[in-house]
């Protein structure tokens, strides 16, 4: 097994593209090393991306935020400007694992591990985040929801690396929120989860919205009917009920020891409602 720590993203992409056997990208390693230790994978090549220039930085630009692929969730959570702009994204990232895991794990690793229950992904999808990718064919930018294609699978081609995640500049009177259900208080995988991002008009009615559900299907669901239920409303009880129904109807969850299909459907609606209420409150404060 070869371990390489390149200094540039182009070198990293080149190494991955020309590797003969199996190759893996190492960010925080909180998924990769667990899988290696468990004997599920044994890569011939490991490309550690943490020494690549700029990948450990969060940048605020005129367009919004650019979050490097090696930024740990602990560092992300300490960025007050990002937290003020995108509280839902940051609260989702901060739910991952424990203090120790937070010091290593990244939201890009969370996305690329492609677990349907990954915590940061519904919040990123609701936020309309985009992934900027570098690979043998150059650069491309895609919506975050286009990265995972199924449990443990992504749309990334051989040699492709996500360099940064992009979040738009927060518009006035808008807010986001993320909630998950777990049977204990922390250190557990979401049984079901919901991310809501919305913007209000001057009268306080919802102008635009995005609602995403986690652990409700093989990949995160962006529920357009749920967003439509919110648009034009001031989040009255009837609207929240329509939102919950749209979310429950969109779910295609599995039935396992952690939750039945019926339970997941019901809780998806409840969490979406609660996340919408928090996002609406946050939008009113900005
Ligand atoms: C104790 C424990 C508790 C956990 N709790 C949670 C939890 O509550 N919620 C949750 O969602 N997850 C949880 N996880 C899972 C894990 O911590 C997250 O998925 C984490 O965000 C992965 O990030 P990483 O940087 O460690 O990824 P890594 O392990 O380094 O990589 C994960 C995968 O992504 C690929 N990858 C990494 N970076 C890139 C890149 N830039 N471009 C392309 N591919 C890339 C890797 O090759 C690998 O396949 C937990 C894990 C542990 C060990």
Topology:
Blueprint: E1 2-4, H1 9-17, E2 23-26, H2 32-37, E3 45-48, E4 58-60, E5 64-68, H3 73-78, H4 80-85, H5 87-93, H6 99-102, H7 107-112, H8 120-127, E6 130-135, E7 138-143, E8 148-150, E9 153-154, E10 161-168, E11 174-181, E12 192-200, E13 206-214, E14 221-222, H9 224-230, H10 237-250, H11 261-285
Parallel strand pairs: 1-3, 2-3
Antiparallel strand pairs: 4-5, 5-10, 6-7, 6-10, 8-9, 11-12, 12-13, 13-14
Helix pairs in contact: 5-8, 9-10, 10-11
Bound molecules: flavin-adenine dinucleotide.
Q: How would you explain this protein's 3D organization?
A:
The protein is an alpha+beta fold and 286 residues long. It has eleven helices and 14 strands. The chain has a five-stranded antiparallel β-sheet. A four-stranded antiparallel β-sheet has the order 11-12-13-14, sandwiched between helices. A hairpin with a 3-residue loop joins β4 (58-60) and β5. The longest helix has 25 residues, at 261-285. The model has no long low-confidence stretch (mean pLDDT 96). Residues 24-32, 34, 49, 69, 95-97, 101, 104-106, 108-110, 112-113, 118-119, 156, 161-162, 187 line the site of flavin-adenine dinucleotide.
